[in-house]
Specification:
By secondary structure, the protein is α/β, with parallel strands linked by helices. It has helices at about 20-30, 45-60, 90-100, 115-125, 140-150, 155-160, 185-190, 230-235, 240-250, 255-265, 270-280; strands spanning about 35-40, 65-70, 80-85, 105-110, 130-135, 160-175, 180, 200-205, 215-225. The strands form 2 sheets. Strands 3-2-4-5-1-6-9 form a 7-stranded mixed sheet, with helices on both faces. Strands 7-8 form a two-stranded antiparallel sheet.
């Protein structure tokens, strides 16, 4: 059973846990008039919440935003939201065709699950729409190869994709019982943090406020891959997700999930143990 706390409302980009640099990247990309924005990650990693945050950021009276969801998770004012009804023949693919007749500026598709949905979404992005959706891959570059696996031509993926971002949710230290600590040197060395200066390693010992778990609340860790000229060329040449990730990291334009988790450990937001349980070392 998945329980969604509707009382908190839609998150803003500032509340997701992105670094200042990543937020600025996202804000510059999502304001572009057309193209595809993909959120990736396993079930329960906060993908839909991030897409709602983006919609909230770009929502204006002069922009026609329509969503197609299964189910509708948050109700957002001034946005038309449609829920799938498979018994009535309302699928992501058929719903997308109907939406495109209503002259939308922005379309959010809950998930790209099959080649038909992928094809219609790509065509929509090509013809002047902003398309937001999710796919199930482990990292940001995996979204590219996933679309190609769904029989979307590489040159089309390279043309429409604006950004793909992977994310996970990580538990944060309880602020009521937090205290400084020093992780094991072997663990620090494995994460490349043994030589970091001015680190603020912290953990929470457990108290009634956090039910003695040491953690209270969660935040996101992100890996944001912007489709620039280098990535565009690699997509057209059908490079693997691993090759794209490696090249982007070497060029200094990508901070991986592991890097972002390590940054939050250094800032004292979470512990090294929690980071290790969420992303692979």
């Amino acid at each position: 059973m998945r329980l969604l706390d509707m009382s908190t409302g839609v998150y803003t980009l500032d509340r997701l846990g992105m670094s200042v640099e990543d937020r600025e990247k996202m804000r510059s990309i999502i304001q572009r008039p057309y193209g595809m924005i993909l959120s990736t990650g396993p079930t329960g990693s906060g993908k839909s919440t991030s897409l709602y945050s983006i919609l909230q950021e770009i929502n204006r009276p002069d922009i026609n935003i329509i969503t197609l969801e299964d189910p509708v998770e948050y109700r957002v004012s001034k946005i038309r939201q449609i829920q799938l009804n498979r018994k009535a023949g309302m699928t992501f693919a058929s719903g997308l065709r109907s939406i495109l007749r209503q002259d939308p500026d922005v379309i959010m598709v809950g998930e790209i699950r099959d080649a038909e949905t992928a094809g219609i979404s790509t065509q929509a992005a090509l013809t002047g729409h902003r398309v937001l959706s999710t796919v199930h891959t482990n990292d940001a570059a995996g979204a590219i190869t996933r679309l190609i696996d769904m029989e979307i031509e590489p040159f089309l993926v390279a043309s429409v994709l604006l950004v793909s971002f992977a994310q996970r949710l990580i538990r944060t230290n309880c602020p009521y019982c937090i205290e400084p600590y020093r992780p094991h040197e072997e663990a620090l060395a494995a994460w490349g943090l043994d030589g970091v200066e001015n680190a603020s390693f912290q953990r929470s010992k457990g108290c009634p406020q956090c039910m003695n778990t040491g953690y209270r609340g969660r935040t996101g860790i992100f890996e944001i891959l912007i489709n620039d000229d280098m990535i565009h060329d690699m997509i057209v040449k059908e490079r693997t997700a691993q090759e794209i990730t490696r090249a982007a990291k070497e060029a200094g334009m990508l901070r991986t999930l592991r890097d972002d988790a390590a940054s939050k450990v250094v800032q004292g937001i979470t512990t090294l143990e929690e980071a290790a349980s969420t992303v692979m070392v």
